[in-house]
Structure formats: structure tokens, C-alpha cells
Amino acid sequence: MSTQAKDAHPPTPLPPFAVGVGIEDTFVVEPVAGRRPLDEYVLTDHDRRWREDVELLVASGADQIRWGVPWYRVHPAPHRFDFSWTDEVLEALGESGVEVILDLVHYGTPGWLKGSFADPGYPAALADLAVAMVQRYPQVTVVTPTNEPSVTAERCGEDGLWPPHLEGDAGYLQVLLGVARGVVGAQRAVAAVRPDITFWHVEASRRFVVPGDGPSAGAAWAERAAHLRERVFLHQDLVTGRVDDRHPLAAHLRAHGVGDDDLAWFAEHAVRPDVLGVNYYPHVSTVDVGGHPLVLPDGGPRPSSWPVTYAGTDALEDLLRTWHARYPEAPLALTETGDPGPIERRVDWVHASMDVVQKLRAEGLPLVGWTWWALIDFLLWDYREGSAPPPEYLLQHGLWDLVPDGTRPDGLPSYARVRTAAADAFADVAARYGRAAVGAGTAGDRR
């Protein structure tokens, strides 16, 4: 081929790419008999050892960190804020040179929102938090209004495990619509005061499979599985104003009280992500609806009872292609991934998952980021309902392991941070694919 022919069709430049890491930031602290406060910052000692964690972050070579606001601590009463802790941490994060993707909501809400995500005051409360944070912290330039809306709706509205403890399809939709209104309100409020902010929407990328040769339970719930596959996209469809009577779930929404006014509101106030993030874990993201005999409650299996099946890189590739096909206008990021357990397993997944992302980028998919979850180990959510000592719930998910090294003033364990080979593997992919390797640019840039 001649030089002239090559120049006539230059290759499309890839969008800038960022290598990120997160810190688990679930905060479900509502006092309920028999349930313990689930504050991952307290349980992992991040609330006291955050300076050390910032040093680990810098040592990792990450371009970005997904870091969340402990909303219940920062916003203890309506229109009243306590920034004493976040001031220190966000100043250090700003000085680290690592871009902060600020998670505003990671499952928990303040106790004064009695209805939690279904409270009529929830959207306004979240908008207040969002505006207060971005006005106070100019170093924050990327915001995720709410992490994993579909999982929030499952655990809080369908299973009733977390506030507001609703159940069934109606509960799921009540929570999901509250979450969606909050995302829209927060994003619009932030954009009005900080037009420089980039918005990353982050959703769980659940896969629902029904084996053709599975037991009768699988065949019985094939229709339900098809519904669940479509439901994964419902939140994003709502906030972007895509839901009308032609939507695949329109009849389901109508049957559960979602009316013209609701859909018209979302259409009128639609927001768009600058980056659409999806979270994928090979050990939990694929739900095998018919893989095991189940005692099925009325209305189908609850999310907490669904068996999961391990699915690796092929499933990851399929999911990223599926989300891009659904929302081709939005740059895509893998905003959480990891494969917990022995260090060899973590190291293998660092490389295998990054290889998938880079392969798809080379094919032209607008992938702009990859985030390992997490910088340090964290505790399983089962801790909240359990009674065993906290270290028994530790999940080896980190680049640095948590190893008990004493007792905190509140009686909970404290943890030393111990570097693992996963941190070395992460530093390697950060050096090869991160911003320092490819030059200037931000992962939130529109292309």
C-alpha cells in the first residue's frame, strides 16, 4: 500500500486510558436488632489509616481512585454537614496527583432519611450532598452519583436486606425509581455549580444464564431470566430518558404503578454519562438461574438465593460488547473487577482482565478505564447479619492484604497493610497502559 493510501485513511486514535483502583466503601449502618454496622472504612481501619492508604495508592502507580463519601457521617442532619474527616483525606488525595472518582452513594443513606432510597426527600438530600462536596473540594473533577443502582434495588427493594427493607418487584421498582431520581437530581445540581465535572455512571453487569440441560427449575424460570437480563439496563434507560411504552419492560412498569408522569419526568430531565462504567467479577457476576435445584418463593428466586457460576474472560468480553452495543454513544470503563482468593488467582486476573480490555480497545471499542477492586482487602457484606469475629469475613481482594495487628479503641481489629504480588502486577499494567505510558489526556474526555 502506498504512503498516500495510508494517509488517506489514518487509524482512529484510541481515547485516553486510565488504570484505577478502589477502596471498598459500603456504608449500611442503620441500627437493627441482630445486625452490625457495616462501615467498610471502619472495618478495614481506613478511617484511621487513610494516610498510609494514600501512600499505598501512590506506590501502586494508579491514575485514578474510586473513593466514596461516608454520607451518614458527613451529613448528620438535613442541611448540616461535618467535613472534618473528609477535609483531611481529600486534601491528601488531591496532593497525591491521583484523580479521584468521587462515589456519592455506595448503598447506605443517613439515618434521618427514614425511608432511605424510597424516602420522598431522598433526591433533594442527595443533591444537597453532591453540591456541598463539589463546591468544597475543587480537586474533585469526576463524580459517580450512585454506585450499582440495580444491586441497590435488589438488596434494598427486592430482598429487603437493607433499608428501606422493601420486597418483591414493586419494592425493587420503588427503590430503583428513587435512586434514579436521585442520580438525575444530583447530576443536574452539580452541573449547575461545577460545569467542569465529569460524570461516570457505574452499574453492576449481571449475567443471567439458564442451562439448556439444567433441572426443571431452570426451564421454569427461563422467562424470568429474560426479564432480569433486560432489567439490568433499566436504571440507565430511565436516567437517560429512554423508557416509554415501546420499552421492553413497559408493561411490567405499568403493572407496578409506574405512570405517565414518572416516565415524562425522566424524559424531560434526562442526563447523560460522560463515561458509562460497568462492574464485573468472574466469581459472582454470572447468575445460574437454573443451575441448582432451588426452593423458589412466589415471584421467582430472590437475588440473595441465586447461585452464581464462575465465568472468566469470555464472559467479560461478552458483557463489555453488550453494554457498548446498548449505549454506543458513551465511552465505556470497567469500573470494578477482581478475582479474590489466593494471590496467584488475583495476579492472573489482573493480567487476564486487562488483556480483554486492551483487545477490545484495539478493535475500536471506546474503553477509557480499568479499575481493580480494591487497593486493600475488605469484609464480606455477610458481616452485617453475622456474629463471627470481623477477621473471619475478610475477603482477600486487595493489592495489599489486611493482617490483624491489634485492637482499635472501639474494640474492632486493626490491620497492617501487607503488599502482595497483585500490587506488583497492578504496577506493571499501570506502567504499560496508564496515563504515564501514553501521555497527557483524561479518561473522561469526550470523543
Keywords:
single chain; 447 residues; alpha/beta; TIM Barrel; eight-stranded parallel beta barrel; two-stranded antiparallel ribbon; 16 strands; 16% strand
Structural features, described:
The chain has helices spanning 3-8, 40-43, 46-60, 71-74, 84-96, 122-136, 149-158, 168-193, 216-220, 222-231, 234-239, 250-255, 260-268, 313-326, 343-363, 421-433, 435-438; strands spanning 18-22, 27-28, 38-39, 64-68, 99-103, 142-144, 198-204, 207-209, 275-279, 286-288, 332-337, 367-373, 378-379, 394-395, 400-407, 413-419. Helix 3 packs parallel to helix 5. With 447 residues, it is of the alpha/beta class. It has 17 helices and 16 strands. The protein has one domain (17-85, 98-116, 204-438): TIM Barrel, CATH 3.20.20.80. The two termini are 29 Å apart. It is globular, with a radius of gyration of 21 Å. An 8-stranded parallel barrel has the order 1-4-5-6-7-9-11-12, surrounded by 5 helices.
Which SSEs are present, and which pair or pack?
Layout: H1 3-8, E1 18-22, E2 27-28, E3 38-39, H2 40-43, H3 46-60, E4 64-68, H4 71-74, H5 84-96, E5 99-103, H6 122-136, E6 142-144, H7 149-158, H8 168-193, E7 198-204, E8 207-209, H9 216-220, H10 222-231, H11 234-239, H12 250-255, H13 260-268, E9 275-279, E10 286-288, H14 313-326, E11 332-337, H15 343-363, E12 367-373, E13 378-379, E14 394-395, E15 400-407, E16 413-419, H16 421-433, H17 435-438
Parallel strand pairs: 1-4, 1-12, 4-5, 5-6, 6-7, 7-9, 8-10, 9-11, 11-12
Antiparallel strand pairs: 2-3, 13-14, 15-16
Helix pairs in contact: 3-5, 6-8, 7-8, 14-15, 15-16
